[in-house]
Structures are given as structure tokens and as C-alpha cells.
Specification:
- The complex is a heterodimer of chains A (364) and B (183).
- Chain A is of the alpha/beta class and 364 residues long.
- Chain A has 14 helices and 14 strands.
- Chain A has two domains: 182 residues, Thiamin diphosphate (ThDP)-binding fold, Pyr/PP domains (Rossmann fold, 3-Layer(aba) Sandwich), CATH 3.40.50; 114 residues, Rossmann fold, CATH 3.40.50.920.
- In chain A, β13, α13 and β14 form a beta-alpha-beta unit.
- Chain B is an alpha/beta fold and 183 residues long.
- Chain B has one domain: Pyruvate-ferredoxin oxidoreductase, PFOR, domain III (Pyruvate-ferredoxin Oxidoreductase, domain 3).
- The longest helix of chain B has 14 residues.
- Classes of the chains: A alpha/beta (364), B alpha/beta (183).
Chain lengths: 364, 183
């Protein structure tokens, strides 16, 4: 097991989808994630595992193909970049409202609008607070290495099926375009139709069986009492996610006097900034949320009692910082929480992060 | 040991694939590696650069603003990256097309006539392998057998007959490195 390769993050998404037994990929090309579909088309998984790969007419077409395939209990994935995800937002809301599992990969680029093709983290709000209409949440995973791009495809789909809820890998052009060593997972066979009926027979719409009533998938409910109950059930699921599937990483936090909080690519840059700071004798740690929803409120609250200040480092104008401030404030802590961000496709350098920490918190 | 390298030149010079072969050579030598390209919308032309990091430890940031080594293949890249070499670091450049040679006095500077050597070899496409050879003379971060394995791993098998020619180019570059300034 464990084939070692040097691959781009985008290529790994494609390879991991094939290996984890995906039934289908539907997408539409956009920089900086076009390698996902390119790799799938080159690999021709339809000859190998039977996985379908289809270029839709648009992102709107792709997400509704996902909606349909997910409704039949198939394991399906799509990918796009920021403007394309906005086009998918309506479909994602319907999938969440219909309680269907799927995996959506957003390889973010600078925005708003068509923006740039360089890396950004400006879709944090969109990913974690909804994106489409209605009270729904996605399970949001933020990989910070090519290895995690591999691992989170299987994990994202597993959680999506556990909760019957769409999951998103929120990454960006940096992790998507960079190459690193990756240990690929072993192949998991695709489920057969019999296995799908056995596991998901209570909800899939793959033809009514003589032994059961027909299943109906819809997000529409004319009775608002029933709709409120649906919403309450959704909220219970979201609370359960926080109890059971919260993921985060604490790096050098034990003796930290200052804390950096960063996810994905920014966390990689901050890792270097932690080393640079410690070389100068400044005790800095890093908290890296791995699930952005659910968000690691409790670990942050615990650290807030120990440190002199927090710097939230993001490639945006200040989005995750709102969740950090809530977590810290709700715990009754008065520790300063500052923000350092670059926008529009610019990646901050480790030296810049250290300078911001010194300037905004330590006061030099 | 960690080696942080920027390779910068024009699109089409083989900057990204040189970085890829170097990264693969590191993988073959059981090192941690990262390869991060700076990409624009164009397929050819324009400037292209790639940051390659080889290390014995987990690599933190794949994006840097100071480097142990800068391999510079055009004037725009010289202007941008000469100031970003760490003091005591290494700058290697091909003088072809360089109007303003490097002026830093606190770094080691080498020259490689990559364009000329590749032309003498009869295949200008081997230019990037000549430069790679020169780099490995200045900084022996990976052994030659790892480069050969890296080429085998990174090139599709239909191109494997080109490996001997590429290795010859690496060797010529290795022999052709000229020291300009040592600190």
C-alpha cells in the first residue's frame, strides 16, 4: 500500500476521487483548478473503475448533475474555483435542503467578480456561512498540504454520507498548483447497486422497489410547521458535527505567548513565521482549524486564556477573524485579536507575517 | 539541511520542468520537497518562476521572499530576485540576455553559459538541464544518480530515450560553471 508520488494538489484530487470509489465527477473548467478534470480525462477512470467523468455545459449544469446523481445514492464530486462556486450556490442550497451527500472542491482565486487567477481565501464566508440561500451549512475542510488534498477527498465524502449533507474542500490556487510528495490511498471499490440499496435504501431515488414505498427527494415543503422541523433537524446535524467531527491542529502552543490563527495555505506560511519568531526569542504558536465548519471554538477559547494576543492571518480582508473573535469573546476573554491579510491573489510571506505580529501585537 | 531555491526566467525556457526534475531528484534521495510555480494566464512567453525547497524536515511555507539560491535566466528576473538572495547565498545566472550583471557583494555569484552550451550540444531544449548541472556543481544537494532517477520518474516513458542526452547536458553544465565572486 501507499504509493509515493510527486503531484500537484489538483491532480491529487482527481487521483483520490478515482481511488476512493467515486461514481462520478461533473465539472466545468476554470483556472486555477483545471488540472482536476484534465487529470481525470487523461486517467480515463471509466475504463478502470467505471467512474463517469463529464464536462457539463456550465457550473450550473455540473452542480445539478451532482444533485441528480447524489439523489440516486452515488458518490459524486465536483470542483471549481470561486466564480464557478458562486454559480453553483443555488444548487448547493437545494442539495443541502434535500439532505444529499456530495463533495464540492473550491480551489479559490482572488475576487470579487472574475477577480484574478492567483490564490485567495476570500470565500471563507461563502463556504462556512452558507453561500446559497437558507439556513444550511456545509462541512468545510481546509487542507494545507498536497497530502491533505488526498486525504480529505475520502474524509469529505465519508462525512457527507454520515450526515447526508454536502461537504466542501476549501483550498486555493497555492495548494492546487504546488507539487509535494503524497502517499496515495489504496483503491476502495465502487458500491454496487445492491450495496447502495442496502445502505441507503431509505432515501435513494433509484427506482421504487417492490419491497418499499417510493422515496421522494425535494427541498420543497409547503407546510411551514414541517419545514421548521426540517430546519431543526438540520441544526441538530450541525451541532453533532461539532461534537463528533471537529478537526484542528495546535503547533507549538504549549508555551506560546502569542498565537497565530490560520487555515490552509496561510497556515503553511505561518508555520515558517513561527520558526522565524522563535529564532528571535518570541514564543509564538499556531492554531490551524482543519474543519472551518464546524469551527474549533473551544480550543480557541482555551488558548485565549493563556496568550497575550492573537493574530489571524488570512488571504482576505478579515473573514475567519469574526469566528475567532466570537469564540474568544463568548469565553469572556479580553485578549486582543488582530488581523493580517493580503488580498486579490497576493500570498503573504513569512517575514511579512512576523512583521505584522510585531507591529500589531508586540508593539515594536 | 534545507535548501530554498528560486528558478526564474522566461516561459518556454524550461524553468518549471527544471524545478520539477530537481524536486523529483530530491524525492529519489528521500528528501521532503515542495515545488510552487508562479503562474500567469499565458502558456508561453512572459516571466515564469518556481520555488523549489528540498529539506530533511517537514517543509513549512512553500512561498518565500528570501532564498538560499537564485537561478536567474533573464533580466527581469535578475532585477526582481537578486535582492532576495540571503547574504552568503548563491546566485547563478546565464549572461545571455543579461544587460545588468549582479552587483551584490555579499553573495556568491556564478555564471553558466547555458544557452551557448546547449547550442553546442545541438539541442537548445537541453538548456534547462545544462543550468541544472551548473547548479548541482555549486550546490551538490542531490547526487547525479538521483537526478537520473528523477528524470526517469518525471518523464513519461515515451521520452525515456532522451534521458542520456539530458544527462550529458547536466554533465556539461556541471563542468561549465564559472565562479564570478566568492564571499
Amino acid at each position: 500500500m501507499g504509493e509515493l508520488r510527486l503531484m500537484k494538489g489538483n491532480e491529487v484530487i482527481a487521483e483520490a476521487a478515482i481511488r476512493c470509489g467515486c461514481d462520478g465527477y461533473f465539472g466545468y473548467p476554470i483556472t486555477p483548478q483545471s488540472e482536476v478534470m484534465e487529470t481525470l480525462m487523461e486517467r480515463e477512470p471509466w475504463n478502470e473503475t467505471g467512474m463517469v467523468v463529464l464536462q457539463a455545459e456550465s457550473e450550473i449544469g455540473a452542480i445539478h448533475m451532482i444533485y441528480g446523481a447524489a439523489g440516486s445514492g452515488k458518490k459524486v464530486i465536483t470542483s471549481s474555483s470561486s466564480p464557478g462556486i458562486s454559480l453553483m450556490a443555488e444548487g448547493i442550497s437545494y442539495i443541502a435542503g434535500s439532505e444529499l451527500p456530495c463533495l464540492i472542491v473550491n480551489v479559490q482565486r482572488g475576487g470579487p467578480g472574475l477577480g484574478t487567477i492567483q490564490p485567495s481565501q476570500a470565500d471563507y464566508f461563502q463556504a462556512t456561512k452558507g453561500g446559497g440561500h437558507g439556513d444550511y451549512r456545509l462541512i468545510v475542510l481546509a487542507p494545507s498540504s498536497v497530502q491533505e488534498m488526498n486525504d480529505f477527498v475520502e474524509l469529505g465524502l465519508r462525512l457527507a454520507f454520515k450526515y447526508r449533507n454536502p461537504a466542501m474542500i476549501l483550498t486555493d490556487g497555492m495548494i492546487g498548483q504546488m507539487m509535494e510528495k503524497v502517499v496515495l490511498a489504496d483503491y476502495i471499490p465502487r458500491l454496487t447497486d445492491e450495496e447502495i440499496n442496502e445502505k441507503y435504501g431509505s432515501w435513494v431515488t433509484n427506482g421504487r422497489k417492490p419491497y418499499r414505498e417510493r422515496n421522494v427527494i425535494t427541498s420543497l415543503e409547503m407546510d411551514s410547521d414541517i419545514m421548521e422541523n426540517n430546519n431543526l433537524r438540520f441544526q441538530q446535524k450541525y451541532a453533532q458535527m461539532e461534537e463528533e467531527d471537529l478537526l484542528f491542529e495546535e503547533i507549538q502552543c504549549e508555551d506560546a505567548e502569542y498565537l497565530l490563527v490560520a487555515f490552509g495555505s496561510s497556515a503553511r506560511v505561518c508555520l515558517k513565521a513561527v520558526d522565524l519568531a522563535r529564532e528571535k526569542g518570541i514564543k509564538v504558536g499556531l492554531l490551524r482549524p482543519i474543519t472551518l465548519f464546524p469551527f474549533p471554538k473551544k480550543p480557541l477559547a482555551a488558548l485565549a486564556k493563556k496568550v497575550k494576543g492573537m493574530l489571524v492571518v488570512e488571504m482576505n480582508a478579515g473573514q475567519m477573524i469574526e469566528d475567532v473573535q466570537l469564540a474568544v469573546g463568548c469565553a469572556g476573554c479580553k485578549v486582543p485579536v488582530m488581523h493580517f491579510g493580503r488580498m486579490g491573489g497576493i500570498i503573504h510571506s513569512p517575514v511579512e507575517v512576523l512583521a505584522a505580529l510585531e507591529q500589531k501585537l508586540i508593539g515594536e | 539541511m534545507t535548501e530554498e531555491i528560486i528558478i526564474a526566467g522566461f516561459g518556454g525556457q524550461g524553468v518549471l520542468s527544471m524545478g520539477k526534475i530537481l524536486a523529483y531528484s530530491g524525492v529519489m534521495a528521500d528528501q521532503e520537497v515542495s515545488w510552487f510555480p508562479s503562474y500567469g494566464p499565458e502558456m508561453r512567453g512572459g516571466t515564469a518562476n518556481v520555488t523549489v525547497i528540498l529539506s530533511e524536515n517537514r517543509i513549512s511555507s512553500p512561498v518565500l521572499n528570501e532564498y538560499d539560491t537564485a537561478i536567474i535566466l533573464n533580466q527581469q528576473s535578475m532585477d526582481k530576485f537578486e535582492p532576495m538572495v540571503k547574504p552568503g547565498g548563491v546566485l547563478i545566472y546565464d549572461p545571455n540576455g543579461i544587460i545588468h550583471p549582479p552587483k551584490r557583494t555579499d553573495i556568491n555569484i556564478y555564471k553558466i553559459e547555458g544557452t551557448l552550451i546547449a547550442a553546442e550540444l545541438g539541442n537548445v531544449k537541453t538548456f534547462n538541464m545544462v543550468v541544472l548541472g551548473a547548479y548541482l556543481k555549486a550546490k551538490p544537494v542531490v547526487k547525479m544518480e538521483s537526478v537520473e532517477k528523477g528524470l526517469q520518474k518525471s518523464l513519461p516513458s515515451r521520452h525515456h530515450h532522451l534521458i542520456p542526452m539530458n544527462l550529458e547536458a547536466v554533465q556539461k553544465g556541471y563542468e561549465g560553471l564559472e565562479l564570478v565572486q566568492a564571499v
